[in-house]
């Protein structure tokens, strides 16, 4: 049932309080976001444009509340209000982050398929040969915040090159490099070990596809190893390659606090 706010009547305080305690309704936009389809703001847009139905009835009014037993559809897809799940994976090499790739032997979804009954999706992408920190969740609103370039979420990579990197090239990365007519800048770049200049740490917030590889390739280097060691406050500390774990409540709170500030 779709519920809209209505004014109450005087003289029914006790009954109203009891009904309030038993109210398990939820805002429609939150229900849609919790299903993992999109963020709340995007859910409002879907509602306003008439793309959401509740129990077969098109709903276009914002602020509507529904019951957990109501059937919500986006086009022909039934949306399920699921418990939010947050999984941290230390992605191994030769595993894709795309949900569907008929040419891939394994995807990150295969690695966490027995973790929970809810369907989770990778937050952003790491290419097949890139390893390291990857978050998977069914929280569509958080995913939007963590992947949109506007919110500038910090990522740090450990890069191993085929030859020593010059200081001039490190400086050039920070000042900006022209890639396909677009200026791309690293926030910081330095040697991981001063005695081994083939290893570089790169801090970046831009979200372009394969951006770290493209930066080094444009300067004449070949990447032998690319490992993401930090993403939006998360690290792979004490998490072996190919293994996963659920985020702690403290980590979830940290992610949400940083994502929505």
Could you characterize the architecture of this molecule?
The protein is an alpha+beta fold. It folds into three domains: 78 residues, Structural Genomics Hypothetical 15.5 Kd Protein In mrcA-pckA Intergenic Region, Chain A, CATH 3.10.290; 90 residues, Alpha-Beta Plaits; 78 residues, 2-Layer Sandwich (Alpha-Beta Plaits), CATH 3.30.70. The chain contains eight helices and 18 strands. Strands 8, 9, 10, 11, 14, 15, 16, 17 and 18 form a nine-stranded mixed β-sheet that branches. A four-stranded antiparallel β-sheet has the order 4-3-6-7, with no helix packed on it. α2 packs across α3. The longest helix is centred in the last third of the chain and has 11 residues. The chain is elongated and about 65 Å long. The N terminus is likely disordered.
SSE topology:
Blueprint: E1 2-3, H1 13-21, E2 26-27, H2 28-34, H3 40-48, E3 52-54, E4 57-58, E5 65-66, E6 72-74, E7 77-79, E8 86-91, H4 108-111, E9 121-122, E10 130-137, H5 140-147, E11 155-161, H6 167-175, E12 177-179, E13 182-184, E14 188-193, E15 196-204, H7 211-218, E16 223-231, E17 234-235, E18 244-246, H8 249-259
Parallel strand pairs: 10-16
Antiparallel strand pairs: 1-5, 2-5, 3-4, 3-6, 6-7, 8-10, 8-18, 9-10, 11-15, 11-16, 12-13, 14-15, 16-17
Helix pairs in contact: 2-3
CATH homologous superfamily name of the largest domain? Pseudouridine synthase I, catalytic domain, N-terminal subdomain
Compute the number of structural domains. Answer: 3
Nearest-angstrom radius of gyration? Answer: 23 Å
- The class by helix and strand makeup works out as alpha+beta
Counting DSSP H or I runs of 4 or more residues, the number of helices is: 8
Mean pLDDT, rounded to whole units? 86
Q: Give the overall shape.
A: elongated
Find the count of extended strands (DSSP E, 2+ residues).
18
Q: What fraction, in percent, of the residue positions are helical?
A: 10-25%
- Share in β-strands: 25-35%
Q: In the CATH hierarchy, what is the class of the largest domain?
A: Alpha Beta
Per CATH, which architecture of the largest domain? 2-Layer Sandwich
Could you spell the SSE succession in H and E letters?
EHEHHEEEEEEHEEHEHEEEEHEEEH
Look up the CATH topology of the largest domain: Alpha-Beta Plaits
């Amino acid at each position: 049932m779709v519920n809209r706010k209505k004014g109450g009547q005087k003289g029914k305080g006790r009954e109203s309080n009891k009904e309030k305690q038993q109210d398990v309704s939820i805002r429609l936009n939150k229900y849609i976001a919790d299903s993992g389809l999109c963020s709340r703001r995007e859910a409002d847009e879907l509602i306003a444009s008439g793309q959401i139905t509740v129990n077969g009835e098109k709903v276009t009014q914002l602020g509507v509340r529904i019951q957990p037993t109501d059937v919500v559809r986006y086009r022909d897809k039934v949306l399920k209000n699921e418990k939010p799940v947050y999984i941290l994976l230390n992605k191994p090499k030769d595993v894709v982050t795309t949900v569907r790739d008929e040419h891939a032997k394994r995807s990150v979804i295969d690695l966490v398929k027995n973790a929970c009954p809810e369907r989770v999706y990778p937050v952003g992408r790491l290419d097949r040969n890139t390893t390291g920190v990857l978050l998977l969740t069914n929280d569509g609103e958080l995913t939007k915040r963590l992947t949109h370039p506007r919110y500038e979420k910090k990522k740090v990579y450990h890069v191993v090159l085929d030859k020593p990197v010059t200081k001039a090239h490190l400086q050039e990365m920070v000042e900006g490099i022209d890639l396909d007519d677009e200026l791309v800048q690293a926030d910081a770049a330095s040697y991981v070990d001063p005695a081994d200049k083939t290893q570089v740490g790169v801090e970046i917030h831009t979200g372009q596809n394969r951006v770290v590889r493209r930066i080094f390739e444009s300067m004449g280097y070949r990447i032998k190893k690319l490992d993401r060691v930090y993403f939006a406050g998360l690290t792979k500390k004490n998490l072996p390659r190919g293994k996963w774990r659920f985020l702690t409540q403290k980590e979830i709170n940290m992610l949400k606090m940083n994502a929505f500030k």
